[in-house]
């Protein structure tokens, strides 16, 4: 019998728009995931300059792509070119994932959701817990908003520059039910004894930087959970300090893989092979 099934040589395509984007490791995670899912899909990074962002976003519709990621410097600017934006992404004020549904573009922010999912994976409860968040940039904002929406008790934002730190606290207090306060980070910060989770959401420790956040490390207690957003290297000196004091730790790869898994669900409708994605990423950063 001849094969009557119609052949399709067109491959589904997803991209990340950024500048610079050559060193973005998402391609590795997505390639591993698509292969494991048996999807002959392509994920590639595109260097997109700010003046070309609108055209790039229009290309998602014009080329019938499944969607795109947005990274530095496009996470905020992309919002004005999208048809719909999720509630959380609106509060955060940034979009890192776009998907196409019924011909319209939807913006989501999976950075913070990837972080809360990583906590969930390690059975670390969020509701009512006290967080200390180092940093007040894009990653910190996404994490803080998702923690707040998930029922966190208190978030203390510790940041080097007052303006960004106070702005984030104001956002949390005005748009979410969480209690929040700001500490200016102009000294070695000593953790309050009732801290449940400490998160480094600064860029301190990102390869090739080997420094650690300025803390009184003896204020870390074994019952505290300590997290780092830095995916490369997966084991930062900051996490090693915490482990030496008996703390449970969570590295930046867990957040990165989980945000990728959330995106895969949005683009394909399938559950992502998170273990395979994590292994691919760790191999890349060896
Ligand atoms: P931003 O530039 O928006 O924010 C950087 C933050 O780090 C600011 O709060 C800044 O303070 C603080 N900071 C930087 N250097 C220092 C320093 N030497 N001392 C004290 N504070 C410092 O960056 P993002 O929030 O977008 O990214 C932060 C990190 O998160 C990056 O390393 C990125 O790789 C990582 N990331 C990881 C993800 C994951 O999935 N694992 C996802 C997204 C990001 P100030 O306001 O004073 O300048």
From TrEMBL:
The record's annotation in InterPro entries points to: Aminoacid_DH-like_N_sf, NAD(P)-bd_dom_sf, SDH_C, Shikimate_DH, Shikimate_DH-bd_N, Shikimate_DH_fam, Shikm_DH/Glu-tRNA_Rdtase
Tell me the domain of life.
Bacteria
Q: Which CDD domains match?
A: NAD_bind_Shikimate_DH
Tell me its EC number(s), please.
1.1.1.25
Q: Which residues form the active site?
A: 75 (proton acceptor)
Q: Where does shikimate bind?
A: 71, 96, 111, 259
Q: What is this protein's record name?
A: Shikimate dehydrogenase (NADP(+))
Origin species, per record, is Diplocloster modestus
């Amino acid at each position: 019998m001849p094969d009557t099934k119609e052949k399709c040589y067109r491959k589904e395509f997803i991209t990340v728009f950024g500048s610079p984007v050559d060193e973005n490791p998402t391609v590795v995670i997505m390639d591993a995931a698509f292969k494991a899912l048996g999807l002959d899909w392509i994920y590639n990074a595109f260097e997109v300059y700010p003046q070309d962002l609108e055209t790039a976003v229009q290309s998602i519709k014009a080329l019938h792509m499944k969607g795109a990621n947005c990274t530095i410097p496009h996470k905020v600017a992309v919002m004005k070119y999208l048809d719909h934006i999720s509630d959380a992404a609106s509060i955060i004020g940034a979009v890192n994932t776009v998907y196409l549904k019924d011909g319209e573009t939807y913006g989501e922010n999976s950075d913070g959701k990837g972080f809360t999912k990583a906590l969930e994976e390690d059975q670390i409860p969020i509701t009512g817990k006290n967080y200390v968040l180092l940093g007040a940039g894009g990653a910190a904002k996404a994490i803080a908003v998702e923690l707040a929406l998930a029922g966190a008790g208190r978030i203390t934002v510790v940041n080097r520059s007052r303006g960004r730190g106070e702005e984030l606290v104001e956002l949390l207090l005005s748009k979410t039910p969480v209690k929040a306060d700001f500490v200016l980070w102009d000294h070695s910060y000593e953790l309050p004894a009732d801290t449940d989770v400490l998160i480094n959401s600064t860029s301190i420790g990102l390869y090739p930087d080997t420094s650690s956040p300025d803390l009184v490390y003896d204020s870390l207690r074994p019952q505290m959970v300590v997290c780092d957003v830095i995916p490369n290297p997966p084991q930062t000196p900051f996490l090693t300090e915490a482990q030496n004091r008996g703390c449970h730790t969570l590295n930046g790869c867990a957040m990165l893989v989980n945000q990728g898994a959330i995106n895969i669900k949005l683009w394909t409708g399938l559950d992502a092979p998170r273990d395979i994605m994590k292994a691919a990423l760790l191999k890349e950063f060896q």
